[in-house]
Amino acid sequence: MAQLWGGRFTGQEDELVKKINDSIGFDKRLWREDIEGSIAHASMLGKQGVLSEESAANIVRGLNGIRQDIEDGSLIITDDYEDIHSFMEAVLTERIGDDGKKLHTGRSRNDQVALDMRLFTRRAADDTVRELLSLLDTILSIMEENIDTYMPGFTHLQKAQPVTLAHHMGAYFEMFRRDTERLLDCRRRLNLCPLGAGALAGTTYPLDREYTAMELGFDGPTRNSMDSVSDRDYAIEFLSALSLIMMHLSRLSEEIIIWNSNEYRFVEIDDAFATGSSIMPQKKNPDVAELIRGKTGRVYGDLHTLMVVMKGIPLAYDKDMQEDKEPVFDAFDTAMISIRLMGGMLRTMTFRKDVMERSAMNGFTNATDAADYLVNKGVPFRDAHGIIGRLVLYCIDKKCSIDDLTLDELRTFSESFDEDVFDAVSLKTCVEKRLTDGAPGEGALKKHIEQSRTWLSSLR
Q1: 55 an active-site residue?
Q2: Using the 8-state DSSP alphabet, how is residue 272 labeled?
């Protein structure tokens, strides 16, 4: 199969060169974007009189026919071509004759592939946002249903203070909200059209770049032809956003893995999202959460790959940049399935509220509130901190909690303790009196949920 650049060459291409040079094996994924961009380009050439209206219309009809045939499976993209661009031009020319050879007028593969990748990344960002919104809706539903589900909050994986499941999941809502906003911001920045930049210096044809940008849904054309064909910042930014999404998914996966353990038993993962052991019949393993956690490193690797590819490339286009596609495709695919799996796992997961509450009642999660109680009785905080520290040691020795002690026992540590201490350090009080914005108290939590639902609805 002749290459698009074959006229200058008389010798045969080395087979290894062909193997490393050809990109059809992976860039055929861009066939929709290539057709979409080519239709806009041909329409613009006809409008500008660069091509006759008949030739432009013939090209557009031919491209639409190719699109339909690929969609219904009657046309297969084979690896006989160098890339998706040469495949499209060859098939188009075979179908409509010499008009097919006119499609590339005023266009280089450099601005063509730059366009295809922007179109793909824009669509991928939109798809990722849709999946994130679905995940956020699931998390918000869990929050709405668990405002009074008490559980221990942790620092250093040690029980710290009591919170609610709604408050805990609210932290992940905020993470994935930031991820959504990052993607929307990335999309805004990438939404400029490089078509018309040519190889690097534009073209002498009277192209209407504003027209093609509008036809393709861009905010306008790119502003510098050299940057147009050599820019992959948007792809790196997209992979950076995906890497942060995967980091948040991995952190949530880690907690689910811990919560699912025999020692915690906070959750029961649905059978659809767990696997068994080939030798131990009692096992129910959180493999989906573990795989999401593992695949996070894969997406990090895709980001690192693209950053290393781009770090030393002089202007304008260089063949190194062909290496942009596989990491973008892989990171997008990996993130999408991970987000979907996390949503499905959360929607079907059983939260063992009784176990969570019992866990919150143990481990001295109310120790800070006991110290605050003494402060409210006039004890300096540093002294109160020391008193409660000694009280905790006493309880550890007795194998009991602060709530289990009698008032007389408490008063051996401080005369400031009174009957109202038991209500002050109860689980419900410890949570409900925290009403500052962002806290786990019911009022603050309901405010957070309401604001979150309003924001989520605004993006539908």
Answers
A1: no
A2: G
CB atoms near residue 300 (< 10 Å): 17
What pTM was computed for the model? 0.92
- 414 labelled catalytic: no
263 and 393 part of one domain: no
- Token representation of residue 443: 């009022």
Q: Given the residues 74, 156, 278, 458, select the one marked as catalytic.
A: 156
Catalytic residue among 52, 261, 277, 304: 277
Query: Whole-angstrom distance between the N-terminal and C-terminal Cα of the chain?
Result: 47
Same domain, 328 and 401: no
| One domain, residues 445 and 426 | yes
Write the pLDDT tens digit of every residue in 64-74.
999 999 999 99
E-assigned strand segments in 306-381: 350-351
pLDDT (tens digit, 9 = 90+) per residue, 30-71?
A: 999 999 999 999 999 999 999 999 999 999 999 999 999 999
Residue 48 lies in domain? 16-105
CATH of the domain at 404: 1.10.40.30
